[in-house]
Amino acid sequence: MAVMDDAERNTVPSIPLQTVKPSWSVRVLPLILLLCFLIACVLGLYALFVLRAVLVSERGRELAMNAAAVADTLDRVMFERYGDVQLFANDGVLR
């Protein structure tokens, strides 16, 4: 066994950089993270568009029911005013 002096004990053996290969996690993990991010973005956008369509549909139904109620009320009021106009038109005192 060879005797090592202090200078040899404190030196770190040098490994040529060409022989060090990155592990699979260094190469694959960034791609997996990017893929997860893209999937999350796509699912988020899909949920946003579906939710928007549902809300517009429900709000549209609600507005249609309100419009029908207003039209019915206006129709009744106009029918009453039509009766009043007919009454005034046939009144002999106003002629």
Low-confidence stretches: none
Radius of gyration: 42 Å
Helix content: over 70%
Largest sheet: none
The CA-CA distance between the termini, in Å, is: 138 Å
The SS-based structural class is mainly alpha
Q: Order of SSEs, N→C?
A: HH
> How many extended strands?
0
- How much of the sequence is in beta strands? under 5%
Number of discrete helical segments: 2
Anisotropy-based shape = rod-shaped
Mean pLDDT: 84
Could you explain the architecture of this structure?
With 95 residues, the protein is mostly helical. It has two helices and no strands.
Question: Which labels suit this protein?
Answer:
2 helices; single chain; 95 residues; mainly alpha
What is the element layout, followed by pairings?
Blueprint: H1 6-9, H2 24-90
In brief:
With 95 residues, this protein is mainly α.
